[in-house]
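Summary for the steering committee. One of the milestones for this cycle was to obtain a three-dimensional model of the protein with 3-methyl-2-oxobutanoic acid bound, which we needed before selecting residues for the alanine scan. The sequence and ligand used are listed below.
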Amino acid sequence: MSQASEAAKAVPVARERVRVFDTTLRDGEQAPGFSMSRAQKLRMAQALADLGVDVIEAGFPQASEGDFESVRAVATEIRGPVICGLARAQFGDIEAVARATETAERARIHIFLATSPIHRRHKLDMSREQVLETAVRAVRRARELCEDVEFSAEDAIRTEPEFLIEVLSAVIEAGASVVNVPDTVGYATPEEIGSLFARLRREVRGIDQVILSAHCHDDLGLAVANSLAALAAGARQVECTIGGIGERAGNAALEEVVMALRTRGELFRLDTAIRTPLLYPTARLLADVVGAAIPRNKAIVGENAFAHESGIHQHGMLKHRETYEIMRPEDVGFSRTQLVLGKHSGKHALRDRLASLGHEFDDERLSELFTRFKALADKKREVFDSDLDALALGLDPDAVGPWKLQHLHATTHLGNGASASVKLKHSDGRLCAEAALGDGPVHAVLRAITRAAGMALDIDDFQIRSLSNGADAQGRAMLTVQHNGRELCGRGVSTDIVEAAAQAALEVVNRIERLNLGQATLPIAANQA
Ligand code: KIV
Ligand code: ZN
């Protein structure tokens, strides 16, 4: 090693801080299959705050009443990160964001306007001068309402660089505190992004007074590589989503960007405030909220990300972990081993394991969960993290009483439908037994339960999904019903899918009774379960 490189190694180089701007609830949520209700957004927003993101983009308030209310709820409830809302470069949108975020601890208005020739000509029908003037006017108006204003030059990557420099310089002069350079269509390569950001750092007037931001889409599978190239070239905010969900092929995956910066810290010399052991629990929560499984081979948070199957790899791992492992699974919230607990494990071990998976319970709930865990451990040879997650989800506080399932029996009559009998016990002491026929055992059980509880349900959707591996995996049932104009969901988790369906139906029935919503009016349609 030369003296110069020895000296360079000896002098500690200061690490700079990168702001993580999470847009799971806006760019992520607007993609098909990922929409979230207000309650779901709030749940995710709290998890993102716990994770340590700097900014939560909570939605696009002018897009709909529901979006406005979701942004408002996040702004009101969530403390820690800056809460941001998206606006077109129009006063109505900007004012809507200001209203929706007025209860936030710290708010940001995020304005976007396309700058590329193709968007100017075919979408906006605006000249360069008109785009420039509209952007400046919008930023000035936003600054009257909020101190923190971000401007995004939509389709920046396909914009003439001189014009992009002119627009960014002008919006900084008008008061923008963050300028974002999106690769809206996921077209760039890392080299191009790197040289563009380096040029912006040299030529945009006032760039040192603001934060330069990257927002990359994944149409060519380059969103994370492009985001890292932008950061290496001077960006200090990165826009991303959990699991990379987002428009079309999605956005840069937060967990990948963060772990690349951390694992290759000697290269990037950049830090984030992300609590990396919460990456996996947050990704699991998103999967649960939107009902879409994390692909097994997903980097950082997929089930296989730390599984070593081949004999050669296992041998290397046993000799020295770093032969095949560049990150420790526990650093991203995975347990080191997939086989966690068995039927001889105690309550403390269960509490610790659940806590490491991001589930905290008080003593009473833990005892209830422990009983269910023991029952599961008796039925299964191995209890995996995903089983524990499933148990914890089944312990939703909303799922408790007044009705409890005491007995369930279902039989399928090949080619001739199915029958089921149930016995329910109410917290007031009533015991109700009912039997019903159905197209299949799930249908029969749902009918028997609703009859026993004296209700009829209008079922919108019913799904069963496997939550873990193997023939003895747990299944999760999700039942959605319409009830007096409201949508209600029930969930159930069991190794027996008929029992899972029964739990889901019971949760709905209980919710209706607890909310005192009265009886539903429509019977279960024969083909709906
Ligand atoms: O991809 C994009 O250009 C956007 C902007 C609104 C930032 O999502
Ligand atoms: Zn985007």
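Key point for the committee: The chain has three domains: 12-290, 311-393, 400-514.
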